[in-house]
Amino acid sequence: MVVRIDRDGCVAIVTIDNPPVNAVSHQVRLGLWEAVDATEGDPDVSAVVLICSGRTFVAGADIREFGQPPKEPHLPDLLLRIEAATKPWVAAIHGTALGGGLELAMACHTRIADAGAKLGLPEVTLGLIPGAGGTVRLPRLVAIDLALVMISTGTPIGADRAQEIGLVDSVSTGDLLSNAMLIALSVGAPQPTLARELRAETAPGAFSAGVEKILARARGQLAPAVAVQALQNAIDFPAEEALARERALFLKMRDSEEAKALRHIFFAERSTVRLDRLNGIAPLPLAQVGVVGGGTMGAGIAAACLLSGLSVTMVERDSNAAQAGHNRVRAILDDSLKRGKLTPAAHSKDMAAFAASDSYEALASADLVIEAAFEDLGVKQAVFAQLDKVVRPEAILASNTSYLDVGAIARDTAHPGRILGLHFFAPAHIMKLLEIVAPQGLDDSALASGVALAKMLGKIPVLSGVCDGFIANRIMSAYRREAEYMLEDGALPWQIDKAMEDYGFPMGLFRMQDLAGLDISWAMRKRQAAIRDPNQRYVRIGDLLCEAGHFGRKTGRGYYVYDDQGRAHPSPETAALIEAESAQRGIARRNFSDASITDRILEAMQLEGRRILDEGIAQRSDDIDVTMVNAFGFPRWKGGPMYLLASN
Ligand code: 3H9
Question: How far is the CA of 199 from the centre of ligand 1 (A)?
Answer without folding.
Answer: 30
